[in-house]
Amino acid sequence: MKLSFALNFILLSFAQTVEGQSTNAPTNAPTDSPTSCAVDADFRVNGKDKKDCTWVARKGEDSKRVEKLCARNAVFNACPSACGLCCSDNAGFTFKAGGGKTRNCAWIARRYLKRLDECEKIKVKAACQLTCDNCFDLIVSPLSS
Q: CA-CA 20 to 30 A from 9: which of 31, 80, 104, 107?
């Protein structure tokens, strides 16, 4: 979303310059970028053990789950990647790969083309958003509390 805003700004500035109009210097962005895209590994929706940030993202970007939950400040702040604020892998996530060994997102990334089939698993795709090219657009801003 920020990239498209920046691109539109550049194109508009270029068009104005081409037409012979001068433009003012760009202003500061309205909000700062997040300092971290890390998932809060201890966060659970409503305190339920299985409802972590990977669970929030499991049904995909267009799901009602993501839309509804990311409107909550707690979820938006704990699960920035699931809510489309940024894109990263869940560093604490592990799964059983072919052969039964426990693996993580970094394991897929090291030999991506060979291990791409792991990204077809719903939970892996939700937890390894960056590695599996499953980054969400900003879904919704949280409601103020």
A: 80
Single-letter code of the amino acid located at 45: V
Tokens 């809510």 correspond to what residue?
83
Rounded to an integer, what distance in angstroms lies between the CA atom of residue 1 and that of residue 140?
12
pLDDT digits 0-9 by tens, 45-104: 999 999 999 999 999 999 999 999 999 999 999 999 999 999 999 999 999 998 899 999
Question: In angstroms, what CA-CA distances link 20 with 9, 49, 109?
Answer: 17, 61, 48
The answer to whether the beta carbons of residues 130 and 138 sit under 8 Å apart is no
How many angstroms separate the first and last alpha carbons of the chain? Answer: 24
For residues 93-117, average pLDDT: 93
Q: Tokens at residue 123, please?
A: 């939970």
The mean per-residue pLDDT over the stretch 102-116 comes to 94
pTM: 0.70
Q: 101 and 94 in contact (C-beta within 8 Å)?
A: no
Give the span between the Cα atoms of 136 and 133, in whole angstroms.
Answer: 9
What is the CB neighbour count within 10 angstroms for residue 84?
A: 21
